[in-house]
Amino acid sequence: MTNRSVSRKTAIVGIGSTPYAEMYRAPGNCGTALESALTATAAAIEDAGLRKSDIDGVMVGGLPNYESFMLRAGLTDVRFVAYYPRAGRLCPLALAQAAAAVESEMANYVVLFNAVEFRSAGRRFGESEDVVRSGRRPTAHMETSYGLAYGMSTPGANYALAYSRYKSEHGLADDALGAVAVSSGQWASMNPDAILREKISIEDYRSSPYIAEPLRRFDYCLVNDGCAAYVVTTADRAKDLPHTPVLVASTAGRATIREYYASEDFWAEACRSLKNDLLDGIGLTLADIDAVSVYDNFSTSIVWMLEGFGFAAPGEALARVADGWISPGGQLPVNTSGGMLSESYLQGWNNHVENVRQLRGDAGARQIAGCRTILYAGLSAVPAGDVLVRGD
Amino acid sequence: MNDNMRPLPIPNDEDREFWEAARSHRFVLPRCESCGHVWFPPYAACPSCLSRERAWVEASGRGTIAGVARFHRQYLPSFPPVHTVVLVQLSEGPYVYANILQSDPSQAAVGQPVRVVFEDVTPEISLPQFTLAPAD
């Protein structure tokens, strides 16, 4: 989905989410990922102005299996099924697959989602619980360069390793990265569904604890429960539905699989490839982008995405972020819902729901005036991105 | 750190020779007999040309610190905070995780030269580790 012939042929016509903040406040009472999936998909189908019987394609993300969902959702006889056990990083590629399915008439209306129960299940992404509970010696896997034998665990520590080098190469101050979390909090303060709605100051950042130094707690995304869902159909069918369609202008992926997770060039080459496929290939430039959306698993991802795409020169993004560049009222709005740092960790899927709201003009107090084009990108083992545009 | 819960590699067909060499304090890397590529971890086939003919070559044991992470939160019982992990780029190219032994881990910084030392953890497993080295 990177050339002009397929661009803008498909649309996101419905969105649905679970109430992130409410569920976060009552983790013992927020139901399973399966229940979250049922809630969010029903909301997305209703938002699209469709009936369940219209849906003939299902893409299940995050759940341990797809049949449990399809039975309970009453989507048992559809024409197209896809399954992403870990849907986060692949979020734009899942959207690409949904678009390809409707464009090629494998299905007319596809519902797709990512549903997780990280917080209520006590998931900490540190591999410690498994070790402690089992009472067995854990295995040091070769794929992580035997990292566990050295006490190397957690995705955050890999980003800490990478950021320590970035910080050293560019001679950055210890608190330079804090500007990203400050901006995220400002956006989230205008989002009633955001889990962390408190604005934070750079002093708050400085006094927050290190987790894997040089990263502090505010550099890490949330860990929560819930689901984000959307409905995709062709641009032609979208014209008959209630909302202004949000068209898929382009999608792209560029894997960067490394044993140590973080890319040696801070994903510069991956971003160059994504930019070529997402923008150059359909005749867009950075100047056409009204807002940017980033898979903000860690605050560093926002920095490296902005530099990788050329919005800022290498080493210069953080100084501009500190001046309000990506904050409300700034020149380049980034993660207007608060993203995964402050709104919800639905692994890019919540970011997409926000992007649809912005393009429809439904983002309330944080609405970007005249928003018509949003660029999304995630940097991880499988960097991927998409461009969504307002369809009128 | 010689405790019963410390995660340790379980040598397998891909890497048994690597761990046997480490036990005798030799740091070896697989090199492709077909294309000359050197890689780590020691996957059975060359990731560059997929040849399964590999030789084990003595590595220089030298590298440069490419990243420093200090764990302030405890994830694994064997590694109480503050625990320092470094990412080392070997002079041969590949990256390895390590701890800093025989010198002060708090002095570890990006760009510093390091050289390999071995930590005898069990009779079967000696881990390649690194110590801060004076610049050449």
CATH topology of chain A: Peroxisomal Thiolase, Chain A, domain 1
Write down the secondary-structure element order of chain A: EHHEHEHEHHHHEEHEHEHHHHEE
Q: Biggest β-sheet of chain A, characterized?
A: 9 strands, mixed
Count of separate structural domains of chain B:
2
What does the oligomeric state look like here?
heterodimer
Query: In what range is the share of β-strand residues of chain B?
Result: 25-35%
User: What is the straight-line distance between the termini of chain A?
Assistant: 21 Å
Strand order of the largest sheet of chain B: 5-4-3-6-7
Q: How many helical stretches of chain B? A: 1
Mean pLDDT of chain B: 93
CATH-level-4 superfamily name of chain A: Thiolase/Chalcone synthase
Query: Mind describing the biggest β-sheet of chain B?
Result: 5 strands, antiparallel
Distance from first to last alpha carbon of chain B: 31 Å
Just name the CATH architecture of chain A.
3-Layer(aba) Sandwich
Helix and strand content put the structural class of chain A at alpha/beta
Neighbour order of strands in the largest sheet of chain A: 3-2-4-6-1-7-10-9-8
Overall mean pLDDT of chain A stands at 93
Q: Name the beta content range of chain A.
A: 15-25%
Biggest interface, CB < 8 A: A-B, 43 and 45 residues
H/E element order of chain B:
HEEEEEEE
